Automatic annotation (TrEMBL):
Cofactor stoichiometry and binding remark: Binds 2 magnesium ions per subunit.
UniProt keyword list: Chromosome, Cytoplasm, DNA damage, DNA repair, Hydrolase, Magnesium, Metal-binding, Mitochondrion, Nucleus
This protein's encoding gene: ADPRHL2
Protein name: ADP-ribosylhydrolase ARH3
Reactions it catalyzes: alpha-NAD(+) + H2O = ADP-D-ribose + nicotinamide + H(+)
């Protein structure tokens, strides 16, 4: 039997929707290298002020899609590609204005047409694998929705396999689905951490796992002199991004957020791609281990760029570690769909008891 507290299951999924809702007002609003000033973020999401206001912060596509992954797994009790695709499609056509990526919507349209006759296993992957001249999407839209897979699966192998299957439905580019695998593995590790996390050990373990996942060919050439040269000299892999995270954690000065954000934005990035957004979310969590959930979320948003998605992924990892109890009540109250995500978490928790 899986021995993980219910509070951490809840923290994972509530952390994800809260990150989405709180990050959404800032999405793509700020590309300044210094990120978004703390005061600007606080003026919108300060938990003390939100407690006195009866507003609702809306979730976006990140949660709309996560909802479909959760409900499909809970209903089918296994991965069912066609069922999940149908849920994504129905959710999109019910509320198309949740801020979806500009290309993924063509997949929903093709599935909708296929559903008029029969959407089956043979054709469910066709739209995804046809995107971008057959290269597939490397957007972060697969990574932003897979956190619950770490709650559903027991073994590392199943977690990797299921994260991949749930991703390639829409993101067949290797960076799109490998980013999702890294997100699921990060949640898995955070939710299972029994005591204080050593961030370097955490990254080292992910490096080993992602090396295996990416079947990394060729050596990672390290240049210990300069982070910048070292970054530029490599072709992309998540293993490589993790090596950069490790370096950032070693050189990082947690007292000076401004300089740190500038450096992180230049070496990791924070755009709509899985390559940038997933490492940015993971780093935000690891860098702020001393400071707790709330500070971690401010930091993730303060990077700027794809703030809803980076905060949703970071919120899932941080929530898995700190638990629901660490999330300010007013954030829970103002964010749309928090209660429903808590219920999904309870349902995943109950699955492991039976
Ligand atoms: N789309 C947004 N935000 C835009 C602003 C929304 C605004 N607030 C509003 O309400 O209108 N956010 C959401 O999109 C991201 C997830 O995107 P997803 O699901 O991965 O979509 P897609 O279309 O597959 O990829 C996104 C873009 O990435 C580029 N791209 C992907 N693969 C590529 C490839 N192989 N070659 C070249 N470019 C590629 C394209 O520009 C895609 O359109 C999240 O941020 C979510 O919050
Ligand atoms: Mg979004
Ligand atoms: Mg769009
Ligand atoms: Mg986004």
């Amino acid at each position: 039997m899986l021995k993980i507290a219910r509070d951490r299951f809840q923290g994972c999924l509530v952390g994800s929707v809260i990150g989405d809702c709180l990050g959404a007002p800032f999405e793509m609003q700020n590309w300044n290298e210094n990120g978004i000033p703390r005061q600007k973020i606080l003026s919108v999401i300060n938990p003390k002020e939100l407690a006195d206001r009866s507003i609702q912060l809306k979730y976006t596509d990140d949660t709309a899609m996560a909802k479909s992954v959760c409900s499909s797994l809970l209903q089918c009790k296994e991965f069912d590609a066609v069922d999940m695709a149908k849920r994504f499609t129905e959710e999109y056509f019910k509320e198309p204005d949740r801020g979806y990526g500009s290309n993924i919507v063509f997949i929903f349209e093709q599935w909708k047409n296929a559903m008029k006759t029969e959407l089956n296993l043979k054709n469910v992957l066709y739209p995804s694998t046809s995107q971008f001249d057959g290269k597939g999407s490397y957007g972060n839209g697969a990574a932003m929705r897979v956190s619950c897979i770490a709650l559903f699966t027991l073994s590392l192998e199943d977690c990797i396999e299921l994260a991949k299957k749930a991703s390639i439905l829409t993101h067949s580019n290797k960076n799109g689905y490998n980013g999702a695998i890294l997100q699921a593995l990060s949640v898995r590790k955070a939710i299972r951490a029994s005591c204080d996390i050593d961030p370097i050990v955490f990254v080292d373990e992910l490096i080993d796992e992602m090396k295996h996942v990416e079947s990394f060919s060729g050596e990672v050439k390290r240049n210990t002199e300069s982070l910048y040269d070292w970054t530029r000299s490599q072709s992309f892999s998540f293993t490589h991004q993790l090596e950069i995270i490790k370096k950032l954690l070693i050189v990082n000065n947690t007292e000076s957020k401004e300089n740190d954000i500038k450096l992180v934005n230049s070496v990791l990035g924070r755009d709509i791609s899985a390559q940038q957004a997933v490492p940015a979310a993971l780093y935000s969590f690891l860098r702020n281990l001393k400071f707790g959930f709330e500070e971690t979320l401010y930091y993730a948003i303060s990077l700027g760029g794809d703030t809803d998605t980076i905060a949703a992924m970071c919120g899932a990892i941080a929530g898995s570690y700190y638990g629901l109890k660490s999330i300010p009540q007013s954030w829970f109250d103002v964010c749309e769909f928090s209660k429903e995500m808590q219920q999904f978490a309870d349902d995943f928790f109950e699955l492991h008891k039976s």
